[in-house]
Each structure stands twice: as structure tokens, then as C-alpha cells.
Design goal:
Order of helices and strands: HH
Largest sheet: none
Number of helices: 2
Oligomer: single chain
Shape: extended
Length: 71
């Protein structure tokens, strides 16, 4: 799914793009955990913590924005 940054992206399209990227990241993280084939020079744990922090922040902000949309 190409991303064209020269044109504005609709909200729906941006959600679809994030969902696809999140799915890819979660599959890769599951593979790292399942097969435990960690490259010692490329530890996935810091990236997993970053992903978790991003998701927690996004969840909090989206909940606030949904509340504003519903009022």
C-alpha cells in the first residue's frame, strides 16, 4: 500500500494505513517471541517498549477525542 505524502490523506485512509503497519509490527514481534531467534546486535525489546508507549499514548488521546466528538 503506497503512501503518497504529496496529497492530503483522508482520516479513513490514515486509519487503514496505521492498522496495516500495526499488524505488520505485531506479526514481527510475535515471530521474535515465538521463535526466539534474537540477533544480539538487534534486541527487539526496546522497540517493543516504544510500541507499547506509543499505543498507550494514542489510546489515551483517541479516547479524549472520541469523547469530544460524542458531546
Amino acid at each position: 500500500m503506497p503512501i503518497d505524502l504529496t496529497n492530503p490523506m483522508s482520516f479513513q485512509r490514515s486509519v487503514e494505513t496505521v492498522a496495516a503497519a500495526l499488524n505488520i509490527a505485531l506479526v514481527r514481534l510475535r515471530e521474535e517471541v515465538t521463535f526466539d531467534e534474537r540477533d544480539p546486535t538487534n534486541d527487539p525489546l526496546p522497540a517493543a517498549h516504544l510500541l507499547l508507549a506509543l499505543l498507550e499514548d494514542a489510546t489515551r488521546e483517541v479516547n479524549e477525542l472520541v469523547d469530544r466528538l460524542e458531546t
